[in-house]
Fold this protein.
Amino acid sequence: MIVCGEASGEMHAAGLATALKKINPDISLYGVGGELLKNAGVQIFYDIKELGVIGLFDVLKKLPTFLALKKTILKKIQMEKPSAIIFVDFSGFNLRLAKEINNRIPAIYYVSPQVWASRRGRIQTIKKYIRKMIVIFKFEEEFYRKYGIEADFVGHPLLDIVRPSMTKEEFIRSIGVNKDKTLIAILPGSRRQEIEKILPVMLKAAVLINGERPAQFIIAKSPLLETRIYNNALKKAGNIDIKITEGKTYDCLNIADFSLIASGTATLESAIMQKPFAIIYKMGLLNYLLYRPQIKIPYIGLVNIVAGKKIVPELVQFKANPSQIAKTTLNFLNKPSELEMMKTRLAQVKSLLGQPGASSRAAQIIIDLIR
């Protein structure tokens, strides 16, 4: 059984499922996921479309949904008696589920909860209920082993995934933009709450940027979300040259001179492509005030965490305002040497992510564990 709850986790889960099927074509996989997992050969018994949440108050609103899902999964385990359960990210739910399962079947965690950043009390839950941690950052392996937890670093699965689907020229023609004009990609996240909080701020910044340096903007839309959520924000954006594409994130990044990216997986995707960007993040004020004191590391961006220093600007909460975003973007666009320096540092981050083939290595560890 595979359990994931969000778009980025499902992408990694789908790669893992494909690799498991390749090693053992007869393996039976079922779980909680969406279209990606289904296309990878997993029998989906619960769709994740409405599970993504941000912050305590969003979790509370959906608490009945999560409780019902937990009952459904436990019942499914009792019926199917799987050889193992694989948790993929989605830690708030998955660690509680691990407690309920209570070692009745081997529990494997792929894509670690960020316990190294906050809420370190969860380490004891992992130590007690998780048989094996399969991690995608080298520093995570060292972190868990320090606590006596079995952990294997397999590299980052994005290294096998992140590549444009067409050349720059082909994509530019397909979306009808001017190759000689500044182009800025906007990646506002994959959750509804992120789009509603972050996209309007990014679009206001776009208006300010355009006032100083005429530019084209392209929004990379999440396939999981309805177009109307984006259109609602666009209605208030003013008169700027902006387009929306779906399922073409890497092509958007590939042609962009600079990108505005919500903190999350997309920041690593941009780093792998060595495309300069700024990290933008904003959440509800009460959620922010509750969660900020729990963060024990100086950065929120995975790129900066992996690098161990700030190589990409982070504009979070109060700094995530249109004027600051516009000023930061223009500073980089007007200084080509700064853009080149960021590209060099992003290449160094990419080198720290291991080698391609992470999904295959993770799958082999799981197969060996359940034999």
Notes: The mean pLDDT is 91. DSSP finds 17 helices and 13 strands in the chain.
